[in-house]
Amino acid sequence: QVQLVESGGGLVQPGGSLRLSCAASGRTFSNYAMGWFRQAPGKEREFVAALSRSGVLKYYADSVKGRFTISRDNAKNTVYLQMDSLKPEDTAVYFCAAMTNWIGGRIDDVAYWGQGTQVTVSS
Length: 123
Fold this sequence. Notes:
single chain, mainly beta, seven-stranded mixed β-sheet, 51% strand, globular
């Protein structure tokens, strides 16, 4: 079992930045690829970003490429999502995920979910 707890969400103006954190406990953090997904009201949950167990290999959704950066610190059992140049369409609940495979960002590869943190981009 892996427990994931997100933090860092909030309200930000368009063009602003936020950094989300996800602290993991339980089974060995470094055994899992990690990812971020998001879900806007009335929409399905969608992939945002993922990275390999080592953190070297990364994969992004086209909608966030060049604006968001995923990283991890295996010594701290934490994964981060740096979000820059935020847009109103980035508004959603963001979920951290422990994944069995990072390639393709498939929801079927998610082994554990966090509870989510709200990000609202509005002026």
